[in-house]
Amino acid sequence: MEPVTTAAPLHASSAKVAAALAAAGIPGEVRRLADSARTAAEAAAALGCEIGAIANSLVFVSDGEPVLVLTSGRHRVDTAALAARWGRGPLRRATPEQVREATGQVIGGVAPTGHPRPLPTVVDQALSDYPRVWAAAGTPHTVFPTTAEELLRLTGGTVLPVGP
Ligand code: 5CA
User: Fold this and answer.
1) What backbone phi and psi angles, to 5 degrees, belong to 61?
2) Residue 110: inside a domain, yes or no?
3) 6 within a domain of the structure (yes/no)
4) What confidence tens digit (pLDDT) does each residue in 83-93 have?
5) Ligand 1 mean position to 40 CA, how many Å?
6) How far apart are CA 164 and CA 161, in angstroms?
């Protein structure tokens, strides 16, 4: 099932995401969902895709700065293992205020891009298992189709396993 798209203008946060995608030459367009998709499970149900194909954009704080972990919805981040693989200090989940400050977006709609400043980013290796992945586009009502390779290009990130 394809998500509903309406002609209404995008929210400013989603417009920033759409502009960043266009600037990076990424063809997937921002789509609006009929229902909100604040979690990977809701997004997968709305899109009719596997939960693993949802890329959650999770913000952590590490070594005093916000970082982004684009994580397949099929598992949780093993923060200790990821910090070791990434060569960083401990990863602590950002507070809602830290998420807003780092991304300009609200929890439930955080996107891989469209932020005030680029964040150091890891792209979950598990996302490579899916020919098409979906990520939030700045609000809980918007998503865009992409691939692990595009997410890497978009963020200038690093591919690592993030699960247990
Ligand atoms: N729209 C879907 C994917 S298309 C989405 O945004 N999923 S998500 O997983 O990236 O967003 C929900 C995430 O927000 C949770 O996994 C969690 O990491 C984070 N979150 C939820 N509540 C809080 C909170 N109180 N503080 C910090 N982070 C939170």
Assistant:
1) -110, 130
2) yes
3) no
4) 999 999 999 99
5) 9
6) 8
